[in-house]
Amino acid sequence: MSEHIDCRAAVEILQDYLKRELTPEVEAAVRAHLERCAPCFSYARFEENFLIMLEARAQESNCPGSLRARIVSALRAEMGGG
Amino acid sequence: MAEPSTAGRSFDAEALPHLDALYRVALRLTGDPARAEDLVQDTMLKAYRSWRQYQPGTNAKGWLLTILRNTFINDYRRRKLEPVATDLEAIEPHAIYRAVEEVDPEGAFFSRIVDEKVLEAVDALPPEFREVVVLSDMEGLRYAEIAEALQVPVGTVKSRLFRARRLLQTALYAYAVETGIIRPREVSHE
Questions:
Q1: pTM (predicted TM-score)
Q2: How many CB atoms lie within 10 A of CB B184?
Q3: Which of B6, B78, B88, B97 is the most buried (most CB within 10 A)?
Q4: Contact B161, B133 (CB under 8 A)
Q5: Nearest residue on chain A to B27, judged by CA atoms?
Q6: Residue from A52, A57, A66 to probe the interface with B (highest B Cβ count within 10 Å)
Q7: Under 8 Å CB-to-CB from A3, ≥6 apart: which residues?
Q8: A7-81 in CATH: which number?
Q9: Is B96 found in the same domain as B69?
Q10: Total structural domains in chain B?
């Protein structure tokens, strides 16, 4: 018998579901709920899109080349000085 | 310049690939490029000096971010953190979804907000919330890794994340309404 999850429980653990932090059994139960509950499915998609949007913004800034060079040179000095 | 030793070479190989992530997190924590650069450099030197404590094959990114975060707290933060009351009961998970449900149920408006404004909204979060969003949603760390880096229980990470996302959604929705990216739901009159 698989676990049964209602709307309230599904919403409560939705963020864990979207981050793939649930056990396989609970994850399957949430997925089963979303498949048969249109309002929860729609809400889950909204939250998922929000997370995808956030993740995409993260990649915008990278370590400047000058800083990378400065760090490598500081590390070399440190390593040499052992 | 001296050639790196064996320890130095393994440090190079394991730690240097994470410079971009360290810089991004430092930028969000300090809110200032110059301080972010100093923070990353201090972190890397500290990490090298305690390299022997690192367990090879474990998560180097998580380990480095823990050092970065501790360094930030000890040396960079200008004010002491106040404990944040997380009154989860008071937060409606669907608030913003309900507001846009009729016009934009998929939340496409989030993607139409320019990067700069999204990052500004992240920077405006209280520090406790900002760091969990940055580590989880922007850098992809697992709950357990964040809990370790922050020295708080996993439950605390989860509740802060929940709260942080509600605050962010609220701020971004307000910005989207203000700039006409999205039209607010009609207020029904009695």
A1: 0.85
A2: 13
A3: B97
A4: yes
A5: A61
A6: A57
A7: A25, A26, A28, A29
A8: 1.10.10
A9: no
A10: 2
Chain-chain contact of A60 with B136 (C-beta, under 8 angstroms): no
The domain of B135 spans 88-178
pLDDT, tens digit (0-9, with 9 covering 90-100), for B102-160: 999 999 999 999 999 999 999 999 999 999 999 999 999 999 999 988 999 999 999 99
On whether residue B183 sits in a domain, the answer given is no
**What does the domain layout of chain A look like in residue ranges?**
7-81
Q: What does the pLDDT look like over A16-45, one tens digit per residue?
A: 999 999 999 999 999 999 999 999 999 999
Q: Do A76 and B1 touch (CB under 8 A)?
A: yes
Q: Which among B12, B24, B169 has the least Cβ separation from residue A50? A: B169
The DSSP-derived string for B151-190 is TS-HHHHHHHHHHHHHHHHHHHHHHHHHTTSSPPPPPPP-
B76, B96, B119 - which closes a domain: B76
Is A58 close to B22, i.e. CB distance below 8 A? Answer: no
| Residue A38 sits at the chain B interface (C-beta within 8 Å) | no
